[in-house]
Amino acid sequence: MIRMQVWWQSDVMWSFRHSPVALGSFIVVAVLLLGAVFAPLIAPHDPFNPATLNLMNGFTAPGAPNAFTGETFILGTDDQGRDVFSTILYGMRISLFVGFAAVALGMLIGITAGLVAGYRGGWTETIIMRVADVQLTFPAILVAMLIFGIAKGFTPVEYRNEMAIWVLIIAIGLSDWVQFARVVRGATLVEKQKEYVQAAQLIGRSGFAIMLRHILPNVMSPVLVIATISLALAIIAEATLSFLGVGAPPTQPSLGTLIRIGQGFLFSGEWWILFFPACTLLALALSVNLLGDWLRDALNPKLR
């Protein structure tokens, strides 16, 4: 109870409670996240179960009764009669899962590389950072597309649809580790000169133990900020790849896949098939970005 009180009264939580942008962004992210997690309970239909679909409901406008079945859908239906509201909830599950998993993979690789490079120095640091510099010369989305294409080429044809999500996670994660590595390496260079690290070295602690138990906790603040912003970028990257047709398979459509499908009907009058998934993606990415900006300012003592 005392710890909860101290946490609630901390500088970060005070900043959060007094920031309308942070509060609003958190509410939007929480609503969308809960909607994705509880999609099977919230969604009126299972949009990916053919047994529940009725082609007669196709192209029903939002809030208007269907001319043949009389059914009404709050956000309308697509060409296959799928409820757009339900497809958005299920599509967010894929987008958020890929985003969180890709950021976790990028963090794991980047933090490990940054710690080793900063603590070991020498040729180890040179090799790791030169690899990072080379990767930075290419746009992240192109790196992700290259990795996705190579990984998909090694995947057996019969398993490509099943493994597409995992291949997508690996592609985005491997394209996103550099910024974590650079930040952690810089912070490690500062931390390893401090007395507590030198004391740990004097008493015979191993380099692995020093990096894991002493340096890592003290370099996590900037990593959390980067992770929050990277989550929004990973979601956008997944949507971009899926929009281009090299991401989530049609059997497991994400928000990007739904936008790609809706784009084909935009100029024929069925605007809602594109509009609502695009607005959801925009709200999700913008809210996560705004949370990342607030977290960066809250954890920066120079801005207090």
Automatic annotation (TrEMBL):
Q: How does it sit in the membrane?
A: Multi-pass membrane protein
Which Pfam families would you find in this protein's record? BPD_transp_1 (PF00528), OppC_N (PF12911)
The UniProt keyword set, sorted, is: Cell membrane, Membrane, Transmembrane, Transmembrane helix, Transport
| GO terms under cellular component | plasma membrane
Q: Where in the cell is it found?
A: Cell membrane
- Residue ranges annotated as transmembrane are 21-43, 94-119, 131-151, 163-184, 215-237, 271-295
Q: Which residues form the ABC transmembrane type-1 domain?
A: 92-292
**Any one GO biological process:** transmembrane transport
What's the superkingdom here? Bacteria
Q: Which family does it belong to?
A: Belongs to the binding-protein-dependent transport system permease family.
What PANTHER family does UniProt report for this protein, alphabetically?
Answer: ABC TRANSPORTER PERMEASE PROTEIN, OLIGOPEPTIDE TRANSPORT SYSTEM PERMEASE PROTEIN APPC
| UniProt protein name | Dipeptide transport system permease protein DppC
Q: Which organism's genome codes for this protein?
A: Candidatus Rhodobacter oscarellae
